[in-house]
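Batch queue: ligand-bound targets. Current item pairs a single chain with flavin-adenine dinucleotide. No template structures supplied; prediction is de novo from sequence plus SMILES. Inputs echoed for audit trail.
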Amino acid sequence: MIPAEFEYQAPKTLDEALRALGRHGDEAKILAGGHSLLPMMKLRLASPRYVVDIGRIRGMDYIREERDKIAIGALVTHAQVTTSELLRAKCPLLPETASEIGDMQVRNRGTIGGSIAHADPAADYPASILALDAEMVVQSSSGKRTIPAADFFVDLLTTQIRPGEILTEVRVPVKRAGEGTAYKKFHQPASGFAIVGAAARVIASKAGQIEDVALGMTGVGSKAYRATAVEKSLRGKTASESLIAEACGKAAQGIDPLADIFASAEYRREMASVFARRAIISALEKAMGRASSPSKGAAPGKTK
Ligand SMILES: Cc1cc2nc3c(=O)[nH]c(=O)nc-3n(C[C@H](O)[C@H](O)[C@H](O)COP(=O)(O)OP(=O)(O)OC[C@H]3O[C@@H](n4cnc5c(N)ncnc54)[C@H](O)[C@@H]3O)c2cc1C
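Prediction returned. Tokens below.
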């Protein structure tokens, strides 16, 4: 449980960090909260020669409104997301998701940038980032680029971030009129990671006419994904229990579910439907301006 030897660097500015990463290429790893990187290094699943600690860079932990978006600095911790009044009021899906991550220690150290860059298949944020159509801003010594969520997650622990780049900002849209959101998660009992997590964003009339719907899923396959078959079955329809149940049966369509000691592939597929349904119902009820108790027979049991 002791990492291989490495050289530690703690730049004070983003420019300094980018220069260090530019020099060391793929021999370097960025350290943010350390709650994923350090366990990987201790298990020797990662053995970087250089560790560039970005935690001392000032000004990367902001949450601010910019026109119709909220910009979140990559060093914002899960705890800061959970308690942000701005996010609670204008993008409540993200605080709801962050509050489900690990325990208080993890939420106090882990960062939104670290979690999204790490792309653990059982991490919570990726489902919501996809449902929100968020944007990731990455920077290298040669400039900045913005990557839409739909293109960002490539595979297990793999994103579009290239060696030498730092994820500096996550941009999420401000909630629209008639929008309801919800994150529902089946917790792995020891670590708290998602065996299955479903993030729903629904725009609907008070009468339940679904104008638009987005459903991000995590924990099911090797990377988070949008359940487009569910979305297609619901978009433009009038909501009913049977319509939602039938649509959510497709939550793992086209996905090869993971299997481990906690859940078989078949069980994960089944749970994907159950948690997708819970998330859609909860989001829909918020969109329709109703109390968030699920309608009869639609969402069995507790989620946590
Ligand atoms: C006991 C335990 C329970 C947990 N439970 C959950 C859970 O329930 N749900 C969940 O989602 N997560 C969970 N986590 C993971 C936690 O959320 C981590 O904090 C998060 O995954 C990584 O964030 P970090 O800031 O710690 O990143 P680090 O560990 O520092 O880095 C992770 C990876 O991302 C890279 N990286 C970090 N920041 C950047 C950046 N700005 N730009 C580019 N690359 C970057 C690093 O090089 C590294 O490869 C748990 C962790 C622990 C230890």
